[in-house]
């Protein structure tokens, strides 16, 4: 049967199966549950099984549909993927986590592909064709459905694999106790929960010191003997982020077609899902929804930020923004705020141009090497609630990577609390500029159980659903890093510059 006929049949079956399966989804009891089920789709993606039954990228094939057609810029390229297991047998269910990219190395061009799971072992991947010339295809199997099920199971059922220890010190005496996000300690506790933000933090009371002597905390892994032999094989690095084999042509040539752009400048607008946020060409990010500006010179950046107070709330990827601006603008100077830990407040001021750029962490959860001061981690909700706002105020918010070891529901609840705080801020002062950034890709770590990009992808879906409809600027770091082929939690300066250019395009209009 021709591949296109297979595709049409698969799409029809997919629609039929989806209608049947939707009837079995538990009725959501809350917004948290509704978003949770929409993201993980356990009713479709719970394929636990042996290693031999898992999808193998080298046994699987992808086929460019209509590969002999004449493609022009503005067209959509469709790719059909058939998956096979370790024994070479055709898969009959979906749930594999695929990452797709179209690219042209000579043009420094790239775009993320959109993957549609047919739930029968096949996938339809679509790419918008943005540039003239050769376009190559890369489809990677990040996790088989079995590996994805293992990682999600551990995330939901073993939330204390990433554990915390409180450190209490008094006059040279040092005692420790376990700390948690909920009151689960069997004995006396020290309650450091924040009532305003709703962030819980509970430590067991140390043997002799009082709770007042809580000074530091540290995180550590607590995940021994939790995987079977098959599960360990599923999560070996050789089975992660591997290329699917092309079953024919692996590229197409794209002809130029003059397209009139109907997009205006990048404005704050209601956030809505978008299959394609943009693409790279000559290492420049070109959004699919607005005309970006490029702030190559310090003078242009200063003119944009003149008189602005910029509050960056998030993780180390937004701290990269602070560092970029500090080095990019000579007149912007770092201010000593009294502590010099990397997770402590970072502040920079340009007195002559009345520019203030501040970075703070989003609060707990937080992981880092060594001891950290718990009281330096102010909850994001509290930070937002202290900002009055106005046209001279810019707030950038992100969090994700530090939540990946923990149950998805906890992340969704945290997002909803932040959304409420942002809504109140925009009621106080609707002219406040709010920018959201999601989570980017990261490299394949040895501790893949809680740092897999599958977890980041789940969180990004929840992120988009929680903030859908809010009037914000959005920097899609996931799409950008996939398109750039970046696999580092701290992307290169080339990615960061493009993130900053998009951010500043929302702030300033010519």
Provide a short characterization of the protein structure.
With 510 residues, the protein is of the alpha+beta class. The chain has helices at 3-22, 31-40, 145-157, 229-234, 298-305, 316-328, 380-385, 408-428, 448-451, 453-467, 477-484, 493-507, and strands at 61-64, 71-72, 76-82, 97-104, 109-112, 114-117, 122-128, 133-143, 162-170, 173-180, 189-191, 202-204, 214-221, 242-243, 245-246, 251-255, 269-270, 278-281, 284-287, 309-314, 333-335, 346-350, 355-361, 393-397, 433-437, 471-475. The termini are far apart.
**What amount of the residues lies in strands?**
25-35%
The profile of the biggest β sheet is:
8 strands, mixed
Uncertain stretches of 5 or more adjacent residues:
1-15
Q: What is the overall silhouette? A: globular
According to DSSP, the number of beta strands is: 26
Average pLDDT? 89
End-to-end distance: 55 Å
Q: Percent range for helical residues?
A: 25-40%
Structural class: alpha+beta
Rg over CA atoms, rounded to whole Å, is: 24 Å
Trace the largest sheet across and list its strands.
17-26-25-24-20-23-22-21
Number of helices: 12
